[in-house]
Amino acid sequence: MFRLRKRRRPGRIYAIDRQQVRLKHSENLIYRKKTGNLYFWQISLTVLKSTICLLFLLLFKLASTAQTSSCTSTLAHKQVPILCYHQIRNWKAKDRQIDKDYIIPPVAFHAQMKMLADSGYHTILPDELYDYLVTGKTLPSKPIMITFDDTNEDQYAVGRPELAKYHFKAVYFIVTGHMGTHKWYMDQQQIKQLSDEGNVIGCHTLSHGNFKNLKGAAWETEISLPKKQLEEITGKPINYFAFPYGYWNAKGLPELYKRGFKAAFQLDQPHDLKYPIMTIRRIVACGYWNPETLDHHIKHDFGHPIK
Prior knowledge:
By secondary structure, this protein is an alpha/beta fold. It is about 45% helix and about 10% strand.
């Protein structure tokens, strides 16, 4: 027997209706919660992005300000006399006048070192110079730096004992491709001995190529790998670089920073105003200068604020 379904009276709320209302209400709450959370996270993400951008801008400004302040501080300090030597040997008949700028006879070298000692000069090393230029740290009276370029063996055989006589220390900028390749050049053992005796070893590239021409993979070959090799030889960080021929360009200077150099040395060109610490001036102590001429250049080519 079939049962007749009761007709639903209009206006009356049945249990099934209440259940559907509750379900619909719950769905609305869930939807509102989801959309609310999504809106909250969208706003939070926008705020976070804005905050990160502001922080980057602030850090960039602080870095730029610090660099400008450091450059200004470096430029304000008086220059310290820095001498550059290459070969220490007697002149040969084939040597041209221009060659004699870079070749100093042993007798002349002895006389120049004696003049420095008798005049009360004190040799300093790159770390001392760096601290002076960057932080204003005090230097000894009458400071001077003696540097040697190109790895010539006579720097070890003739220069080293002469410096030791006056308790002078020096900086030796090494062309790693020259090491031990000929009797004219120092070998790794001699370079390590110079370092162990308190002198500083610096990088002078692999092949003594023009710094202005470096690009691409040459930065690794000519700068990074020689730096690493010298660190392995000496067991010490190699923080200083000298430009072959004194040639440099501004666009290449950041590459030296990237490779961990603290400072770099040129010859007698004006400093780079943005990176003065990477273009520190030196003068070549010419082979035909007598002690009085060298003393004149020390006093007149240095001693004023960096230009």
